[in-house]
Design goal:
611 residues; alpha/beta; twelve-stranded mixed β-sheet; four-stranded antiparallel β-sheet; 19 strands; globular
């Protein structure tokens, strides 16, 4: 059953903050406006946690099919989005331990509530979605609020928060934190409706994202790059609004137990990667609305650290060359060394010609690039696992999108000429097909290239095709001019502050993380917070890189252990702490043991601390 109110709902402070309840109130934030509200039931073969797929269905190599590829239903899109987001985050491979050593995919029946919300000053909304299980524990009211990792859509943290919270009887609130997969097709002048299906402006559809762009524009726009809101600057507010929407949804789902307020409902925020950064930004907000925070591999920028734009543009330029200095057997595959080595060798020569490295041989140039990266804080472990980001051209995708976001540039305004579009076999832009755009909402990860949308680089030039564009992106960080000032100003808006005094926070970070190295992010954050006397604990985990999903590759599985078990364990510890049953965990450097080739993961490999 689907109920779709046609009205826009402003949730009153009286409902959100429990003005009718006795006792002091924990928050005085402005009530947000929620629009495009929907509620849907999910029981039987369509549950909250796996959309009825179960572990076997999530492990399937092909996504759940659409009956009509050009016109999937909202139910089909939801199921496929859940499949995509599970597989994009968790290691579900047989022998990897999911569902046996840690985590669950048990069926959880219940109801979902979703809406669009807008933070003050923003022009574009973010998605919020709340899952209320039928087993919600009214006697122990709890909400787990989880922003999506990366730039993923609203289900982007389901394997993190849903898998932990739903079976325990907690409601789980999600947000795409102003990024997500609400792509807009500029050729067809349409995008995602509230239910994920494709609609058009001509038809008068209420769309989740409509860019500020001329009608004649061509290609694809997406929220993270083209909202002009610099969403990262507001990540904490996105998390808070998702928590507020959770209280509103619980009031509707369980009227006999209402009102649900921040006074009578436990709220724990959890996220990884960009989601980890978002919950740390939420931790700094005024008001006693949040009870605990768990942040995994957080992309967080603090004084004394490095913002992702800085180290991503540095890595995009130097890392392909620097990796040639490391022993080939020290790098996990993929990317296949034989395939990428010619391109990395060409990069060394290009850097030498540009005066960015020294040396008369490839070996000397690689050593120069390696030395430069080590001098700026990169460890060998981060360089090794970061090889995937170089091999898959991830650094360029991240930098192009983030430059647009930080500078608040619209469609056609990118200072380095990047754009996004469906592409022909020769990489020339073309209009998307109906089948391609129908699957964007469910399948995309929020940053092209991928899922039928490519990155168009206007500066491509031989011999090192991507180098001119990358130099332009780097100059937006360390160069001069109005565009560089504009991008750096946007980056400054993302700087994090200390968490609220007394708020328990556990930060978990793999020491082999090559996408968001802890030396640039979590380490300086924790050091500043602990120096100021905040209740922050730090788990540093050996042999953990950034992407659990990569452990589906045998060579990664042999070398690394997953990060999710430690996030779940940290959630268990803070929950027990809030119940008065345990103290906060101690700081720890966790010495794990990789399982080796062809072996299943065992509890001894993880070495999760007992306290």
């Amino acid at each position: 059953m689907i109920r779709i109110p046609v009205r826009a709902v402003a949730v009153s402070l009286a409902v959100l903050l429990g003005a009718c309840a006795s006792g002091p109130q924990r928050d005085s934030t402005e009530a947000p406006m929620f629009t495009s509200e929907r509620s849907t039931d999910h029981r039987g073969n369509d549950d909250l946690l796996t959309a009825g797929l179960g572990l076997d269905g999530l492990r399937a190599m092909t996504p759940p099919a659409f009956a009509d590829a050009a016109h999937p239903t909202a139910t089909e899109l939801r199921r496929r989005a859940i499949w995509s987001n599970w597989r994009g985050i968790a290691d579900l491979a047989a022998g990897g331990g999911y569902g046996t050593l840690y985590g669950t995919t048990q069926a959880v029946p219940g109801r979902e509530y979703s809406a669009l919300a807008t933070v003050p000053g923003a022009t574009q909304p973010h998605r919020v979605l709340v899952q209320v299980p039928d087993v919600f524990d009214k006697a122990r009211r709890c909400v787990v609020v989880a922003p999506a990792s990366g730039s993923r859509g609203v289900y982007g943290a389901i394997s993190i928060a849903g898998a932990w919270g739903l079976p325990k009887g907690c409601a789980v609130a999600y947000t795409d934190k102003g990024a997500g997969t609400d792509y807009f097709d500029l050729d067809a002048q349409g995008g995602a409706r509230a239910d994920g299906t494709f609609g058009t402006l001509d038809a008068g559809d209420d769309l989740a994202f409509v860019p500020d762009a001329p009608i004649a524009a061509s290609g694809v726009a997406f929220k993270h790059a083209h909202s002009k809101d610099n969403p990262e600057a507001h990540w904490g507010r996105h998390v808070q609004q998702a928590a507020q929407f959770a209280l509103h949804a619980l009031d509707e789902a369980l009227p006999d137990a209402a009102p649900f307020t921040f006074d009578n409902t436990r709220v724990i925020a959890v996220g990884i990667s960009n989601g980890g950064g978002a919950v740390l930004r939420a931790a700094e907000l005024d008001g006693d609305w949040l009870d605990a925070v768990v942040a995994g591999e957080p992309n967080v920028f603090v004084e004394g650290g490095r913002p992702i734009y800085d180290f991503a543009t540095e890595a995009a330029l130097l890392q392909p060359c620097a990796l040639l200095h490391l022993a080939p057997e020290s790098l996990a595959q993929p990317p296949m060394r034989a395939q990428v080595e010619p391109m990395w060798t060409l990069r060394c020569a290009s850097l030498k010609a540009a005066g960015l490295v020294t040396g008369d041989t490839t070996a000397g140039q690689a050593k120069s690039a390696y030395d430069a990266m080590r001098a700026s804080g990169w460890t060998d472990a981060a360089l090794r696992s970061g090889a995937a980001s170089s091999g898959f051209d991830l650094w360029r995708s991240v930098a192009a999108t983030y430059a647009s976001a930080y500078g608040r540039y619209g469609v056609g305004e990118h200072p380095c000429g990047y754009a996004f579009s469906a592409q022909n076999a020769d990489f020339s832009p073309r209009a998307a097909t109906a089948e391609e755009r129908a699957a964007w909402w469910s399948d995309a990860a929020g940053i092209p290239p991928g899922n039928g949308v490519g990155l168009i680089d206007a500066k491509v030039a031989p011999p090192d095709l991507t180098l001119p564009g990358l130099q332009c992106l780097r100059a937006l960080w360390d160069g001069q001019g109005a565009d560089a000032d504009r991008v750096r100003s946007g980056i400054a808006e993302t700087r994090a502050s200390l968490p609220r005094a007394g708020l328990p926070v556990v930060v978990v970070h793999g020491l082999d993380d090559g996408l968001v190295p802890p030396a640039f992010s979590s380490a300086p954050y924790v050091a500043a917070a602990q120096a100021a006397g905040r209740e922050v604990r730090y788990w540093q985990v050996e042999n953990v890189e950034h992407f659990d999903a990569f452990l589906g590759f045998p060579d990664y599985a042999a070398r690394y252990v997953p990060s999710l078990p430690y996030v779940y364990a940290a959630l268990d510890r803070v929950d027990a702490y809030l119940d008065g049953k345990a103290s906060l965990p101690s700081d720890a450097v966790i010495a794990t043991t990789p399982r080796g080739a062809g072996k299943p993961l065992e509890a001894g490999n993880l070495a999760i601390p007992a306290n």
